[in-house]
Amino acid sequence: xxxxxxxxxxxxxxxxxxxxxxxxxxxxxxxxxxxxxxxxxxxxxxxxxxxxxxxxxxxxxxxxxxxxxxxxxxxxxxxxxxxxxxxxxxxxxxxxxxxxxxxxxxxxxxxxxxxxxxxxxxxxxxxxxxxxxxxxxxxxxxxxxxxxxxxxxxxxxxxxxxxxxxxxxxxxxxxxxxxxxxxxxxxxxxxxxxxxxxxxxxxxxxxxxxxxxxxxxxxxxxxxxxxxxxxxxxxxxxxxxxxxxxxxxxxxxxxxxxxxxxxxxxxxxxxxxxxxxxxxxxxxxxxxxxxxxxxxxxxxxxxxxxxxxxxxxxxxxxxxxxxxxxxxxxxxxxxxxxxxxxxxxxxxxxxxxxxxxxxxxxxxxxxxxxxx
Length: 372
Ligand code: NDP
Ligand code: GDR
Hints:
- It is built from 10 helices and 15 strands.
- The chain has 372 residues and is an alpha/beta fold.
- Helix 1 crosses helix 7, helix 4 runs parallel beside helix 5 and helix 8 crosses helix 10.
- The longest helix is centred in the C-terminal third of the chain and has 24 residues.
- The chain is globular, with a radius of gyration of 21 Å.
- It starts with a strand and ends in a 10-residue tail after the last helix.
- The mean pLDDT is 96.
- This is GDP-mannose 4,6-dehydratase.
- Keywords: Lyase, NADP.
- Its cofactor is NADP(+).
- Its EC number is 4.2.1.47.
C-alpha cells in the first residue's frame, strides 16, 4: 500500500515540528511549507532534514506563503496530499493588534486560499483539511467551561481572523463535501514554544535569573487564566481528527485552568525558589520569600517579577478552560501531560540552553536580554 502524504503549512513552528515528527513515525510522506527568510528559520525541524540527494526521502520542504494563492495551488497540485494541516498563522495575539491587516490576510484569507485550492484542483474527495482553530474564538467569557457549542466572542484581530477561517472551514465542508475540520485547541506549550508567548518567556527568564544572567522578569496581566497543555498531546489529536469517521469540529483542552501568576510560581519552584506577590495591578511585584537551592544564590526579598503595562492588551481574554468531553468520548483522546510536568520539561530545557549563555559570558561575550 502506498504511503499517505501530508502537507503541513507552518512546518517551522512549534506544532509543525511536533506534527512532522509524529507523522514521519506513522510512516507518512511529509511535505512542509516554509517561508523564505534572510536567516535560517528551520531550527525546530533541522533534525528531520534529509539530504535531497539520497533515495527514499520522506520529508520535503517547499517555499511558500499563505498570502500567495498561486504558490499554494502549485504546491498542492504537485504534492497531491491526502491530508493538509493548515497550521501557518501570525499566531501572536498581542502582535495582531499591531498588524491586523496582515493577520487577517494570513490567518483568515490564508485558510480560504487552501480550501479554494482544493476545489480548483478537484481534490474535494481526496484531500482532508485540518484547520488550526483556537480557544481565542471564545474571547469574552460566555460560558465556563467552553465546549463545541459555546458561542464565540473574539477579542483581538487574531481571533477575528481565526473566526473567519473557522466558518470558511465549516462552509466548505457543507457546500462542497470536503472533509474539513476545525480543531479548537486551547493553549499548548513545550520547550520549543515561541520565546514571546508567556509560558516560554517565563521559563527562559526564570532560568536566566537563576544563572545570574537577568535581574527581573517583566510581565503584563498576571490574572489571566489559561488552560495549558503540552503540544505533543495536541498534535496527536490533530491527526486523530482527520482519521475520525466524520468531519467535525473538536475542542481540545486539559480541563484545568491556571493564572499566569501561578505559572510563574511553578517555574520558580523548579529552581527551589518560593515567591511572594504583593501590590495590585501595574504595581504588583514578585519577591523571593524562600530559596531552598544552594546552587542558585538569590537573596531573600529580591524583586524578580514586575508588571509592565506595555504587555497589557487593548482587549483581554480573561478566562479559558475547555471541556474536551467530545474528544474523550468519541475519539478516546486524553492528554498525557500534567501542567507541572510541562513546566518542569520547559525549565529543564531552558536551564540547559541558558547555561550556554553563562559559558559565553564567562568567556567575555556580551549577553543580550530581549524584553518582548
Ligand atoms: P507558531 O507561531 O510557532 O508557528 C506559526 C507558523 O506559521 C510558523 O511556521 C510560521 O513561519 C508560519 N507562518 C506565519 N505566517 C505565515 C505566512 N504568511 N505564510 C506561511 N507561513 C506562515 O505557532 P504554533 O505552532 O504555536 O501554532 C500553530 C497553529 O495553531 C497556528 O495557526 C496558531 O494560530 C494555532 N493555535 C496555536 C495554539 C497554541 O497554543 N500553540 C492554540 C490554538 C491554535 P516562521 O517560522 O517563518 O515564522
Ligand atoms: P495567548 O498566549 O494570547 O493565550 O495565545 P500568550 O502566551 O501570548 O498569552 C497568554 C496570557 O498571558 C498574558 N500575559 C502575557 N502574554 C505575553 N505573551 N507576554 C507577557 O509578558 C504577558 N504577561 C501576561 C496575556 O495577556 C494572556 O492573557 C496563544 C497563541 O498560541 C495563539 O496562537 C493561540 O490561538 C492561543 O494561545 C490559544
